[in-house]
């Protein structure tokens, strides 16, 4: 048990919701709600039509109890009696007042929005007067507050330690999933919703004279489907050609899920002049420890084959890998049947290293043998000059 102010503040700031207890007509009520702490005051969010907020209109305020709990782990003892949980919990008592001042209400609602994402208040519309009138806030001074925690491992009886039962702690934590944009959203994912990634796992925008690479997003699905409808684009890819945009949306979702897990860095390829979607490409098999990365998952609309788009996209990706990230090795994989792709990789200056037998399954279920190519850091300067020379002679993307 702790009564330290800092412990209480830390727990309130970490938790996104709490439980608000009060009485109505002599009977107990508990409501889950959002909260935010400003200084030594806890503000609780609600509707002007809810019972506790109506009761708090009186000058006497509303006696309340607020509870917050963070479950950190399940403790498995050798005996059933010593099964437990690791947790941090807070209980606050006091009399809450209804926030009536509009300036205070706006300040608190801004703080509440900032709690879910630093910078979100500037990245969203402020409440209207009608919305302010429909929103109620309770203010509870943090005077009677206690924090109770349980940490550590198993606390079995000495005589139970020789029992043949597993014992220990199962840690629990809240983990954010990949953000799912609402229909029609075209804005890029804001920084406060992006995971903290190393530069190797960050799809930084890159641009040249022919092509622009930007982070792949769900908003690119329709245009990407239109750009890659030619069946020949999908002949040797690891995914079957989608029948409609919904099918392509699933392929994009798989790519973005892999990025969220740190397994892939996907970009959309755009016409540098018009912004038209041309295709997509990725880093994968990302290994910062061994300074190695693969380039692949590349589809490009047939209209832009034999233009400067693919050459420049590879130049941008190789510059990112070797010059900016300090890679020692960049790898490509392609189907043994895909001779066009093999010739294109060889023109980049990569060396054929091996054939990986039965490396992956094709969309039809057959096993493919994969040709592996690689370029090393000391081979990059010569390849860079060759790619730049090819770009000077390349056909513009729009032709």
UniProtKB/TrEMBL annotation:
Q: Which residues form the N-acetyltransferase domain?
A: 211-378
Identify the domain of life. Bacteria
Quote the Gene3D superfamilies the UniProt record gives.
Answer: 3.40.630.30, Electron Transport, Fmn-binding Protein, Chain A
Q: Which Pfam families match?
A: Acetyltransf_3, Pyridox_ox_2
Protein name (database record): N-acetyltransferase domain-containing protein
